[in-house]
Structures are given as structure tokens and as C-alpha cells.
User: Fold this.
Amino acid sequence: MTPFDIGLIMTGVLLVLVVFGVRVAFAAAFVGLVGMIAIFSMRMGFERGFMVALKMAGTIPHSKSVTYALSVLPTFILIGFLAYYAGLTKHLFEASKRWLGWLPGGMAIGTVFATAGFAAVSGASTATSAVFARVAIPEMLKAGYSPRLSAAVVAAGGTLASLIPPSAILVIYAILVEESVGKLLMAGFLPGVVSVIIYGLIIYFMAKWKGGAPAIGGFTWGQRFSAVPGTLPIIGVILIIFSSLYFGFATPTEAGSLGAFVVLLTAFYKGMRTKQLFQALHETARLTVMIFTLIWGVLVYVRFLGFAGLPDAFKDFIVGLYYAPLLIVICILLGYAVLGMFMDAIGMLVLTLPVVFPAIIALNGGPDVSAADSALGMSGAACAIWFGIIVVKMAELCLITPPIGLNCFVVSGVRPDIPVQEVFRGCMPFFVADVVTVAVLVAFPAIITILPSLM
Assistant:
């Protein structure tokens, strides 16, 4: 049996474990360790091979957790929880409602814009959905909106946190493929704006066509402008993060730390208690540990894949196909759409990227290829960023598609009166909207690459 055969067998074992409900972090670490033991035992005997594999697996958590790029995650996560406990989400929703409520489906459109604003300081999709399920759904139901649409808007709006910086999942992608965190975060901004616009348009036309989302009026210009000051702290944090990343006068970690400090001061000004501060810190620590554990486990598996030779074999297979490169990319994205029905977004990416990413770069012509000589019409560096945004957008789909659809379960959990089946049905138009967004980003890659190219 060759290392390649061991790689295929253990990857199959990993998929079986994940399907039967074993956490991705633990399943990946177990499979990676057992696979390395098997490979090293073939080369140097069981006793020595066991010790070498054990020592190698044991050094990975420390060597990777001290990476400076990872320190950005807790700062971005903390911003979101502090903003929630400071009550800033209510100000965002109220301002959006007053400015956009006059449109057909205006309160739902306003909810999308409010979730986008919160996503720009949060980075966690499920947290965004949970927050606005409490804030926005009661208001929409009171205004005569259908429960299905109200819940679906919140679930779909929460997915924007995966794309709009500061996105935790984009940071994980950058670490896994060793790309610039700052450039990837900036690359997500315009696609996030496109997603918001397409969501807004589909809500508008649904409200005009099917009803169930009446316009609300009665707000004077004075009332609209009076709602703006409550949103200024979040706008300030967004400007701090974006300007820091774009002009390069601070690292992503420094920008996140400064943003968290600004939100903390705002929270204390608005009367946040010590108990609420500890709750925000506790939630931040829980989510950070979960993400770090997932990264550690998957990196053990990634190290095993390298010894088994699976990434190189898949890369050679993809490059050797006699089909148009863009068609191959589309087929890979369809694979992500199917896989997203059975795995959560982060787990799906960390398991597939070690194999798929090298193949995409090779398909385009390699990491050093110029745009003129490439197969997809962009340089190797631009292709890495472009594929990251595309694949993260595909990961968003799994947050609103059955049977996993984590955002849908979160919304239904906060609002038990709305069955999860209703939330899934309501999300179908937004699934179509996401497919349209992916098509636009594939057809016009400059939407993704323009901002990073200017940095």
C-alpha cells in the first residue's frame, strides 16, 4: 500500500466521521494522526514511526497558534459582541427602518442594510442572525410582514458577515492558503455591497409581486436625521478598519484592536455594566477557542495530506483535464454547493482548501503567472484572492440551505414560533440571489480584485 492509497482511505474515513456527527476538528486531527502513523510506520517501523508522527502532530498547535495573523480573529469577534451588548444594533435597525421603510418591503430591505452594517464590525454570521432575530423580526411582524419573509431576511442577511470585512472566515482562508489578510478583507468589500444590492432588489420585487411586506411611512426628515447619530460609533469603527487596511498604516490586528477599543468606550458611555462586559469577553473567548481548535485539528490533517501526496495528485488531475478552465472552476463551485448542504462553512473550507486551492492556482498557470499568460485572465496573486471571495460566497450558501443551514436554525431557535422549515422555504429566493451574485463575480472578477490591487 502506497502513501497515496493511505491518503484516499483516511480521507474516506474522515468523511464518514463527519457525516456521523463527529466534530470536524477532532475528526481531522484523529485522521491526520493515524494517517501519519501509517505512512511513517511503512518507512521506519511502527515504534519509531509512531513517535515521529506523534511529535509532529504535537508541534503543530503551538507552531501555528503563535502566527501573528491569527491574533486578528479575537479582536474582530470582540467588536461584534461589544456592539451587541452596547445596543448599537438597535440604532442601526431603527435608522434603516426610518430611511428605507417607505419602500415596498422597506423594513426588510432596511434589515439587510442593518445586518450589513453590523457585519462590518462583527465578522460572525450566526451572531448577526441571532442579534437581528431579536431586534428586527418583532418589528417586521408588528408591521404586517409574513413570518416566513421576516425570518428569511434575518437568516440571509446574517450571511453577509462571511464576506463583508472584518470576516473571520476570510481570515481563516488567508491563513490556510498563506495570503495577505489585509488584501483579502479589502477584496470582500465590493462583493459584499453587490450582495446587499441584489438582496434588496429581490425583496423589493417580491414585495411588489407577492405582497406580505407593506411599506411603512410617517417618518419626517427630522426623525430620519435624528436616527443617524446612534449609528456613528459603528460607522466610525468601519472607517477605522477600512482606512487602516487600505492605506496600510496599521495591521489588521491593530485595526481590530483599535476598533474594539472604540466600541468599548461607546458601550461604557451607553451604560454597559461589568456583567455585560464579562459576557462579551466570555462569548469572544468561546468562539475564538472553537475556531482555533478547528484550525489546529485541520492542520494536522493537512500535514498528513502533504505526506500522502493528495494535493499534488489532485492538482495534476485538474490541470490535465481537456475542458475550458472556467468550466472546471464552475464544476468545483457546484461541488461546494452540494458539500455545503452537509457541512458547516468553516469546516467545509478547511477540509477542502488544502487540496482544491493548489489545483486552482495551477489551473490558472501557477502562482507567478501574469494576467496576460493566465488561463483565467488574472495574475496568480489576483487569482488567489478572487477564488477566496468566490469560495467564501459559496460557503454562505450552506448557511441557508437544508439540512445544515445553521443561520436558519439560529433564527428558529431565537423565534420558536417560526418553524425552521418555514425559514428554509423563505430563504429560497435569497439562495437564487446568491447564485446570481456568484455569477456576477465570476463574470466580472475586477469587482473583487480592484481594491486589493490599489493597496
Residues 1-66 form one domain.
